[in-house]
Structures are given as structure tokens and as C-alpha cells.
Design brief:
Helix content: 40-55%
Number of helices: 13
Structural class: alpha/beta
Strand order of the largest sheet: 3-4-5-6-7
CATH topology of the largest domain: Rossmann fold
CATH class of the largest domain: Alpha Beta
Largest sheet: 5 strands, mixed
Radius of gyration: 20 Å
Number of domains: 2
């Protein structure tokens, strides 16, 4: 997500500073963004001010945010980790710097309190892949100033996105709806109703979704999806959001989606997607690596 936001900002003429605890990852992200700034962009995006925009890798959080007008936190979807990073950002950023978190699940108010940035933090929930997806959820808490709402919305528009303003609530709009759909798709696979490719095709062709729910889960990362559900299920106390056992099993086996080469689908070295054979519970040998379909 951080790479996608950086690339999008660069294409639209913003200077970008990246920081990651893994400096090699940050340098790779910066290099990819610089090389792709013109790919898939409009003539206006690849010329003019965008052509002169710069991307740099900062050695510390302080160096990354010291001169920033906007800081967008995009670390792993873990509330304690996000709070720790936000504390560092709030301590280093200027008083007028707009602070945003890209969380898809966690309470903005709770993150702001834990991160020591009450009254300053706004949710800016981008969607993956960021350069292609048009929506940004601007998530506000009671007391968020109209200026903060305006600045976030204007920033989203300047990045070629359409902002919608959402009141802080578990899962906001999109995560709540998307996770419920994804869970039901996973349960259909687990119960043997249909395989992943059939379910995804049904949603693409029948409902005009650009991606099926299982393709999307693999793209986002099954570990990230599980983290989201583990946060949302107790927050809403609703079994619609209980993590399906098939998801728990895949993550436990290290099958995390595209990034690991295996999830609900298998992926070759070029990123091409292939179906994974599904085995009924009890079929196959103990060492069988196919997804076990359990009737739960």
C-alpha cells in the first residue's frame, strides 16, 4: 500500500519521502515508483510538475516527516505497531502537518489516543492497487475539524481519487461489506459448493465486480485479511465476521496469497494465477499440500 500511495503521489506532482524499518524495501519501493511514474498515467500526470517530483528514502522517521505537509502511515495492520509508529510521527511532525492512517479496520479515535495525536489523526483508507483504485475513505471522529476533512478530501481529489467521508466505526463502510462477502466466499469453498475460480467468476460476471472476493483476498494477503477479521469480529460481536477455518488453516500453513505464491490460488514466478486442487477432508496423504475442505 505504501508503494502504491508513493507512486500515485509522485505521478501527481508531489515530492515523496519514504521510510521503512527495512531500508532495502524502502529503496526498492522508491526505485520502482521512480521507474513507473509514467507507466499507465495520463499525459498530464507524466509531464509538467509530475516530471519534476522527487522520491527519496529517509534514514529515520524524523527525517521523513520533518518537512512534510502530509504524513500517511501504511505499516502492517497491527494496532500496537500502528500506535507506536504514530507516536514517532506525531513527535517529529510539525504542528500543521496533516496526519493520516491507512488502516482498513481499526478505530481512528483509539489509534489517535494510543499514538498521542488526538485531534490530528484522520483515516485515509486507500484501496489496492492504489494507482488503479479510485476510492478513498476519509474516516473522521467526532470533533474532527472541518479543515482536516477539507484537507484530506482535497488531497484525495488531487491524487485522482474520489473521497467519501465516513464516521469512525469498526470496518468503516468498505471493510465491513467486503469482509462479509469474502467470508461467505471462503465458507462456500470450505463446504464444497464451488471452487475459488467459479465463485470469483460469478461475482465478476454476475455483479460486475472487477475482482472476485477470493482473488482480492489473495492480493491483499490472507494474513492481513485474518488480522482484519480478528479485530472486527470482537468489535462488532457478529459471527458474520468470525474468521473462517479455511482462512486460519491457510495462514497457519504459510499460504498468504500472492506474496507467498500460494493462497486460494497458486502463482507462478510471473505472477500468473492458477487454480489449486481442493481435497475433501480425509483425502490424500498426511503430506498433501492441497487445501483441505472442511465442512464447518
Amino acid at each position: 500500500m505504501g508503494r502504491g500511495i508513493a507512486l500515485t503521489a509522485l505521478r501527481h506532482g508531489y515530492d515523496v519521502a519514504l521510510f521503512d524499518v527495512n531500508s532495502d524495501s524502502a529503496r526498492q519501493a522508491a526505485s520502482q515508483a521512480a521507474s513507473r511514474r509514467g507507466a499507465g498515467s495520463s499525459p498530464a500526470e507524466s509531464g509538467g510538475t509530475a516530471a519534476g517530483a522527487t522520491i527519496t528514502v529517509a534514514a529515520t522517521v524524523e527525517a521523513a516527516v520533518a518537512a512534510a505537509a502530509v504524513v500517511i502511515e501504511t505499516v502492517v495492520e497491527s494496532e500496537p505497531v500502528k500506535a507506536e509508529v504514530l507516536r514517532e510521527i506525531a513527535a517529529a511532525a510539525g504542528p500543521d502537518t496533516l496526519l493520516a492512517t491507512n488502516t482498513s479496520t481499526f478505530s481512528i479515535a483509539r489509534l489517535a489516543t494510543a499514538g498521542g495525536c488526538e485531534g490530528r489523526l484522520v483515516g485515509m483508507h486507500f484501496f489496492n492497487p492504489v494507482p488503479k483504485m479510485r476510492l478513498v475513505e476519509v474516516v473522521i471522529v467526532p470533533g474532527t475539524t472541518p479543515d482536516h476533512v477539507r484537507r484530506c478530501s482535497d488531497l484525495a481529489v488531487s491524487l485522482g481519487k474520489t473521497p467519501i467521508v465516513v464516521l469512525d466505526s469498526p470496518g468503516f463502510i468498505t471493510s465491513r461489506l467486503g469482509l462479509a462477502l469474502g467470508n461467505e466466499a471462503m465458507r462456500l469453498v470450505a463446504s464444497g459448493v464451488a471452487g475459488p475460480s467459479a465463485i470469483d467468476a460469478a461475482m465478476r460476471l454476475g455483479y460486475n465486480h472487477p475482482m472476485g472476493p477470493l482473488e482480492l483476498a489473495d492480493l491483499v494477503g490472507l494474513d492481513a485479511r485474518l488480522n482484519n477479521l480478528n479485530a472486527l469480529h470482537p468489535a462488532l460481536n457478529d459471527d458474520h465476521f468470525r474468521p473462517p477455518q479455511i482462512l486460519v488453516d491457510l495462514v497457519s500453513a504459510g499460504h498468504l496469497g500472492r506474496k507467498s505464491g500460494r493462497g486460494f490460488y497458486a502463482y507462478d514466478a510471473d505472477g500468473r494465477q492458477h487454480d489449486v486442487p481442493l481435497a475433501q477432508e480425509g483425502d490424500g496423504d498426511e503430506g498433501d499440500t492441497t487445501v483441505k475442505v472442511t465442512r464447518r
